[in-house]
Amino acid sequence: MRKQREEKSVSDELIDGLLEEGRKREDVHALLKQLTKMVVERAMQAEMTEHLGYAKHDPAGNNSGNSRNGVTRKRLKGEFGELEIETPRDRNGDFEPQLIQKSQTRWSGFDDKILSMYARGMSTRDIQGHLEEMYQVPVSASLISDVTEGVMEDARAWQSRPLEPFYGVVFLDALYVKMRHEGRVENRAVYVAIGINLEGKKDVLGIWTSAHEGAKFWMNVLNDLRSRGVKDIYLVCVDGLKGFPAAIEAVFPQAQVQLCIVHMVRASLNYVTWKEYKAVTQDLKPIYKAATADQAELELSQFEKKWPKYPAVARLWRENWERVIPFFEFPPEVRKVVYTTNAVESLHMSLRKVIKTRGSFPNEEAAIRLLYLALTKAVAKWQGVQSWKAMLNFLDTVCAERILEAGLRR
User: Fold this and answer.
1) Domain stops at, among 59, 77, 100
2) Is residue 131 domain-resident?
3) For 383-399, how does the pLDDT look when each residue is reduced to its tens digit (9 = 90+)?
4) 90 and 191: one domain?
5) Cβ neighbours of residue 228 closer than 8 Å, sequence gap 6 or more
6) Phi and psi for 353 in degrees, rounded to 5?
7) Which of 70, 150, 360, 404 has its CA 20 to 30 A from that of 353?
8) Rounded CA gap, 154 and 163, in Å?
């Protein structure tokens, strides 16, 4: 009933009267601008009344020490285009309107539209064109820059936020982004860490940049995770970067390291002729699809016998065997969660979509700003990991004490 009364607070007769001059789209648009101006200015006058303690023309204001002092005109940008608003002033100059603040030049929500377009990879010029086309609002490049640069404060707070003390699985990987550094454009690595907590929720733990992907820099990333509260990780899933496992174990000595099977297959195919790609790929499957680590080793021996012309492939698997087989300990229904860095690569795919329209970024901060907006947009759509209950039961069996030591209850 209350909602019905609110809807009827503006009568049909009044609306019909306002629309007498025209019902075309542009007429309705102009009417909405006029109504918005009237309502906002009336509301700000009410704020002034509350501030002064008496209504306009009320004798109670005589000799009160403060009074109204005309208006200040300002133009606000928004979905209605540009709209001039008269903001009331007081003689003492201490009136601080809340509805439209003194420094405000855009309607609430207008900045969100700019950020949403920016997060989709639209360039400053594209955003300018879109806003002018949709809302007939001329927007300067500096305004867009001011809005997007304000994101860095949020990005820094997000990057330094406290993390959970224990993660069941953490995925580590990097993608390359072109950005200007010390006067020249170069490909710089953007490091990404995704964690799955004990509730089965995925989250991006942070992003970092460096000239090259390397174990030394990953050590810095891991130390940053520890300084932000991560005490232990059960499994860390990585690609085949040399020295990476040693860096992980130096910071999280109890963590198991799982090499990404997808990376292992790709590395194997580097030794294979194009004609035999499909056959070799098919024959590698029984290795990582095996039920147990022992069966997987038998399958690897069978592969060696069938493909003696590719000894480097079998050698690659044997040299990394201790980092290949940890996922065989997991329940079959959750192995797909942990034997590949697909979680990271899926995120990378969404990030590449928004950066592909950029030739390069003017600096590292500009790249981080866009990537932060894009990844927070992507993470908002993530759902819990499937079959995580089985994984949680497994973790409770194999590392319950470690979970308790990290400060979490089972």
Assistant:
1) 100
2) no
3) 888 778 888 888 888 88
4) no
5) 160, 161, 162, 163
6) -60, -35
7) 150
8) 16
